[in-house]
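ugh finaly. both done.
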Amino acid sequence: DRRRYCLSAETDATAAQDADADEALVNRLAASLSPLTRSLFLSSIAMARYDYTSALNEVNRAVQADTLSVLARMQRAAVLMRSVAASTLDAADVKSRKALASADLAEAARLAPANAYVVYNQGCLLAYQNATEAAIKAFSRALEIDPQLPEAYYNRALLHVQLGETQQSKADFSKAGQLGLYKAYAQMKGMKAATK
């Protein structure tokens, strides 16, 4: 079971149900796990439960355990942005969480400039902030690094739809579908129905 630590990853429908079993497993293996690994697992489990306070506490421990961990930086950015999307935070807290998420992704990019998932996550954050052109460039850069990343095609297609760029969006949805992200085909079908 491999989980992706990315901003736009969809939550598995059974993730919350599996959280108790996952936590029991992590606790059984605690002695053999590094502090970084244990905190990352516990953060993911808390996110599956939509407990963003605990998720943030755990991922902060992960970053403290290894300040050079790209995965810890990416995970913290994901927790921060999901907490912003799911919470009723005051404007100052939203601003500080977005700034920290951006800083974490910038640090992850500095540490791993050829990591497609880091660049992809930067694109997700830019899209969330309505920086459409910059997000498209980030998704394009992620695809230069890894042309087999269906989520980057899909998200770039969504942005092309926002800009009214039908041909580009169809090409990207098609490629995402070919790479196994089948909901892209539903988007294409919806586009066809909307133009009739």
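ok and the 2nd:
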Amino acid sequence: LQQLNLQVPYDIPHKHLAALFLERVGNYDAAVAALQAVYETVEQEYEKSESLKSLARVAQAKTDLSRNLLAVGSYESAVEEAETALDLLSELESDAKQSALSKDQIMKTKLSARLTAGLAHYFSGSFEAAIPYFRTSLEATGANPDIICILAEVLWAKGGENEKQVARDQLFTAIEKHEGHVGLLTLIGAMTVLDD
């Protein structure tokens, strides 16, 4: 990828791919720097063309950037980038003629942005602000058990008796549908131990 970057320095898809590779190998600081460069370039492209394809690239770059900002602990910036991405994706989704991203791509990108924003709020201690992102993610995925686990952890961490009961109820409802899901079983066990 570095060779390709040297040979074709203005090729944005390859730069974006290289940034995602950096994320995958855990080099989040370098990924943030690379994604900021990608974002600046695609934003300039969008300002010139105002095409939906360019807008889709901006939204994807923002989503990826927010995820990496979360990884390096820049929670406030991660939330800002994720919310901007969600706004852009909603704009794309509302345009029936757009073909830049499929419905499935929009759904997955929005899910990534919502989870990033929710986790950033959670890790910064803003439990109340995190919950709506996880609830929306649950609705969008049809009650994915992994997202139920995250929501239950957030509710439990919030600490009120009502929140803890909602977390328990969510987990027990989910275990009926997803028998044997390790994350659900582990959380139920951990909560039982903490209650004693």
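summary for the 2nd one i guess: The radius of gyration is 19 Å.
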